[in-house]
Amino acid sequence: MVTNKLLIEKNYMDTTIKYYKYSFAMFLLIVILSIVSLFVGVIDISLEGILNSDFKQINILLISRLPRLLAIFCAGIGMSVAGLIMQNLCMNKFVSPSTSSTIAFAQFGVLLSLIWFNGLVLWQKTTIIFIISIMGTWIFIWFTQKIKFKNIIMVPLIGIMFGNVIGGITTHFAYTHGVMQSLNSILVGDFSLIIRGRYEIVFLVIPLIIISYIYANHFNIVGLGEDFSKNLGVNYKKILFLGLSIAALITTSIVITVGTISYLGLIVPNIVSMFRGDKIRGNLLDVSLFGALFVLVCDILGRILIYPYELPIDLITGVVGSFIFLMLMLKNLSPTVKVKNK
């Protein structure tokens, strides 16, 4: 009896360690690269200088490098979780804030805040941008639900085209009102301007992720369809609205603070699902860790590739993300091609 109990406990521990080994590895890499990130930049700071109470170095660490690192974590985790939620709710692995026009409408909201609501305080501007972003997301979701696409790849392609239309309108009004330069400085994903006092709104991501974890099982059920949700006693429209609102609010807070980070919400959940499956609660930890790690690596690369200059994070994630997106599309299309050839 005792031997069987010990054997069960040992098997449970082995299974737990095996299941979380990738999580442990990613966490360890994040810790190591976080330390590297704090000491990479045009202005040199060192551990010795900080320990010797060098005021200039400590000031740079607290005002610039540490806020930048925290913003990297929030942006990486937030956009990845937003993509995971949208993919499950829409039952489509290619839907994300980038491919569902959520980011495009957030950018349009930023433009309106520059033109008509420039006198408002930050939280009021954020509220307006959030409303526009969630309305745009709902328009896209309504459109895709009304038109049943036979191929799931058509949904993100329509979303990209829809987002480009909104982007064109945004650009037109930006040039018309002479705010194009200001708009570009806000929307280009870049952590170089992150300093203490100008990034705190991105912390809104933290409670939203906690809510996402609480309602993770509900999001999974809603992802199986309206009829299935009703049979299990889950309010389909309410949970769908909650999930899309969380994704839109996360996207808005990151766009306002950091700017646009392309394809992050698309590629991270897809890569993690290859190892973990499609259950949100089981994937949230790994999606969060991998999202933070991915953005951290891209940010460090952006700082060292053309040192002492810096590449925007959106440029690096856009290049890497578009390549991975293309690979995912080809992988999805390959079974269809084989069937046709037969």
Short précis:
The chain is an all-alpha fold and 342 residues long. The protein has helices at residues 2-19, 21-38, 47-51, 55-90, 102-115, 122-146, 154-176, 180-187, 205-214, 216-222, 226-231, 236-257, 264-276, 280-304, 313-341.
Describe this structure in words.
The chain is mainly α and about 350 residues long. The protein has a single domain (about 70-340), classed as ABC transporter involved in vitamin B12 uptake, BtuC (Orthogonal Bundle), CATH 1.10.3470.10. Helices cover about 75% and strands about 0% of the residues. It has helices spanning about 1-20, 20-40, 45-50, 55-90, 100-115, 120-145, 155-175, 180-185, 205-215, 215-220, 225-230, 235-255, 265-275, 280-305, 315-340. It is globular and about 65 Å long. The N and C termini lie far apart (about 55 Å). The model is unreliable at about 335-340 (pLDDT under 50).
Q: What topology does this entry show?
A:
Layout: H1 2-19, H2 21-38, H3 47-51, H4 55-90, H5 102-115, H6 122-146, H7 154-176, H8 180-187, H9 205-214, H10 216-222, H11 226-231, H12 236-257, H13 264-276, H14 280-304, H15 313-341
| The CATH homology group name | ABC transporter involved in vitamin B12 uptake, BtuC
* Distance between the amino and carboxyl termini: 57 Å
| Biggest sheet features | none
Q: Total domains, how many? A: 1
Mean of pLDDT: 80
Radius of gyration: 22 Å
User: How many H/I helical runs?
Assistant: 15
SSE-based structural type: mainly alpha
In CATH, the topology is named ABC transporter involved in vitamin B12 uptake, BtuC
